[in-house]
Each structure stands twice: as C-alpha cells, then as structure tokens.
C-alpha cells in the first residue's frame, strides 16, 4: 500500500532528526576567543597556534588548519558568528520558529538537520556575519594579512573626487569567509543523486547568498575636506551597510526561498518548473519546514506555548498565527515608567513615575 505524501514527509523528517546532531563552527561565536594584539601574534605562533585552535570547539579539520594559518582572524570569526546568530534571533523574534539556540556545540540543535528554509537562512546570515566582521577588522588594522580596501573605483563616481579612503575590505572578507565557512562542505565527497550531496550543495549556495548580501548592501561613502567646511577635496571609499540592512535583505530572500531537488547528474534544480531558476542571491531549500507550533525535542521545535503575542496584529506576531489557532491567555500587568520629564537649568532632568495597567497575551 502506498504511503500518502504527508506520512512520507513525517517519516523523512524523523529519519533526518534521529541522525546525530553534529558540532558546528558557529559555536565559535559562543566561546571566548581573546583578541590578539600584533605583538602577541608572534608569541602565539611560537607557543603553537595549534594549541589555540584545538581549544575551539566545532571546527572541522579543514577549518582547524585555516585557524592555525590565520589564528589572529579567529576573534573576528567568533564576532561574525555571534552577530549572525543575534541578527537571526532579531529577524525571527515574532515568528513560530524564533531562531532559538541550545546549550551544546550544535548551537541550534536538531532543527538544522532538516534542509528547510530556516536552515538556509542560518547558513546565509552566519556566513554574512563572518564576512562582515573580517572586512571591518581589515579596515581597523586588526589582522596581519590585510588592510584597507583596494576595491576598484566606481565608474559613476565624480571624476574630481578622490577614491581611496580607508574602506572596509570586502574582497578579502569574501575570500577568507568563502575558504573558512565553505571548508566544512568541501571536505567530503558524496555520490551523485544522493540526499547528502543535495544538502551539501544547498549549504554552499546559501553560504554564497549570505556573502553576496553583504556586497549588495555595501555603499560608497564620501567625506569633505577643506577649511571651514569648504569641501575643496572629497574622498570616497567603500563601506559596509549596517548589519540590520543585511538581515532585512536576507529575510526577504527567506520569504521567497525556492524549493529545489537533486538530479541524477548531481545538480540542483527547481522542484516546481513554473518558478524561475534561483540566482546566486537567492536562498534555496530541499525540505518543507516542520511544525513549529508544538514542542518536539526530536525535531528541535520548542513550540509556541507561553509566547507573548499581539492580539491586534494580523501578522506573524498576531495571536491567531503565533498561537496556531489554540487561543491565548490574557493577564493584567502593571508597568512603571518615567514620564513628564523636565530639564532644570543647570543641569539635571527631573521625571515623574507613571503607573499604567497593560494586558499581556500569551499563547495557550
């Protein structure tokens, strides 16, 4: 007897989730990685960079080797992973899956074993975070092997303006992040037409989408020079956008993520031929997302019970959608806040304390 599609999907997700949840390099962002000064770098290599890198949990063999070659980059990698996780949690704060982390080396738990659009976003935002951090560290002189950007002059830039201020080094950030983050996917070889190969290619594509998001949102920044603001000289350079803009951009890509499948030739193709083929800027996924409404430790879902919702919103943060139709509880709460503040000359601010009652709605 043939299994119906929903039962088949459930069995598939269970098989995925029962697999051992492996450690991930993103875990570096949750560890303490000391910032090494230039004078300390030689000492670090003398005592053995391998000692420092061995102490970092979650690195694959290839990433460990890159760590030893560029041990001064690791604080920036850690910072990039951390801002990627924090941005993920900001972007999904009001959604059923809120990018929650667990207390082990997998960081996100079994949920990343599923090749869903949420997994696609995590790969993209953390790759973007590392590229962002490395590019900025180059500009700030924190890394021994790079400095200010040497990017080419934009064609549309005014010919009288000087190109070459100390910009963020996106080119170096891209290349190092590609080598480090993608190392995990490039260390193993998989047979054609296997799920493992499909997942491998999916991760690489989403890593690339994250890096491209950083480049697409970067902009040219210019500054005037001259006596009393005469602006007799203008210097321009390439500058990273605020990381929030990159997160917003990737969330749009998440909402429009494209479902793909692995072909017999070992390539990815769109599952629904009526859709356009994904570009390198798009996020892709292989599996439908699990049901995040109810807690399921096997699948890594915490459920939405007890989550605060917005009774008047029709969006994802609304009680109807966030609570998955189960309804919500309402509790009165007293809020104390400063109000009616006045500035007194000179020099202090005097405020009153206002008390108001508010309703807090939580999912059943």
Please report the distance between the alpha carbons of the first and last residues. 38 Å
Question: How many structural domains can be distinguished in the coordinates?
Answer: 2
Enumerate how many helices there are, as a single number. 10
Q: Indicate the overall shape.
A: globular
Q: What is the oligomeric state here?
A: single chain
The count of β-strands is 11
User: Which sequence of strands runs across the widest sheet?
Assistant: 1-3-2
What Rg is obtained from the alpha carbons, in whole angstroms? Answer: 24 Å
Query: Beta-sheet strand percentage?
Result: 15-25%
The biggest beta sheet is recorded as: 3 strands, mixed
Q: Give the helix proportion (percent range).
A: 25-40%
Helix and strand composition category: alpha+beta
Q: What average pLDDT do the residues reach?
A: 88
| String of helices and strands | HHHHHHEHHEEHEEEEEEHEE
Q: Detail the poorly predicted runs.
A: 5-11, 13-20
Summarize the helices and strands and which ones pair or pack.
Layout: H1 5-18, H2 38-47, H3 49-54, H4 61-69, H5 74-91, H6 117-139, E1 162-163, H7 170-186, H8 195-217, E2 219-225, E3 233-239, H9 243-255, E4 258-262, E5 268-270, E6 284-285, E7 295-296, E8 301-302, E9 308-309, H10 319-322, E10 328-344, E11 348-363
Parallel strand pairs: 1-3, 4-6
Antiparallel strand pairs: 2-3, 4-5, 7-8, 9-11, 10-11
Helix pairs in contact: 4-7, 5-6, 5-9, 6-7, 6-8, 6-9, 7-8, 8-9
């Amino acid at each position: 007897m043939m299994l119906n599609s929903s039962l088949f999907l459930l069995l598939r997700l269970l098989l995925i989730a029962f697999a051992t949840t492996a450690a991930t390099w993103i875990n570096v962002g949750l560890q303490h990685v000391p910032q090494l000064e230039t004078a300390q770098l030689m000492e670090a290599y003398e005592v053995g960079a391998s000692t420092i890198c061995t102490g970092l949990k979650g690195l694959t063999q290839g990433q460990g080797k890159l760590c030893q070659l560029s041990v001064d980059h690791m604080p920036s990698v850690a910072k990039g992973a951390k801002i990627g996780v924090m941005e993920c949690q900001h972007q999904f704060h009001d959604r059923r899956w809120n990018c929650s982390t667990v207390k082990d080396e997998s960081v996100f738990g079994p949920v990343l074993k599923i090749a869903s659009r949420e997994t696609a976003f995590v790969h993209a935002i953390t790759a973007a975070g590392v590229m962002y951090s490395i590019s900025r560290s180059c500009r700030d002189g924190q890394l021994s092997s790079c400095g200010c950007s040497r990017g080419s002059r934009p064609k549309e830039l005014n010919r009288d303006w000087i190109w070459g201020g100390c910009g963020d080094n996106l080119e170096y950030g891209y290349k190092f992040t590609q080598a480090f983050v993608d190392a995990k996917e490039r260390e193993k070889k998989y047979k054609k037409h296997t799920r493992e190969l499909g997942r491998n290619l999916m991760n690489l594509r989403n890593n690339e989408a994250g890096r491209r998001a950083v480049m697409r949102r970067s902009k040219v920044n210019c500054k005037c020079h001259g006596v009393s603001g005469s602006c007799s000289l203008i210097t321009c350079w390439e500058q990273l956008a605020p990381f929030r803009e990159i997160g917003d951009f990737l969330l749009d890509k998440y909402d429009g993520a494209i479902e793909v499948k692995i072909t017999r030739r070992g390539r990815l193709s769109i599952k629904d031929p009526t859709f356009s083929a994904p570009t390198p800027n798009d996020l892709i996924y292989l599996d439908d997302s699990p049901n995040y409404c109810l807690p399921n430790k096997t699948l890594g879902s915490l459920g939405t019970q007890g989550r605060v919702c917005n009774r008047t919103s029709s969006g994802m943060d609304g009680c109807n959608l966030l609570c998955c139709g189960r309804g919500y509880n309402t509790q009165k709460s007293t809020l104390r806040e400063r109000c009616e503040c006045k500035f007194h000359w000179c020099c202090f601010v005097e405020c009153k304390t206002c008390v108001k009652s508010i309703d807090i709605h939580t999912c059943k």
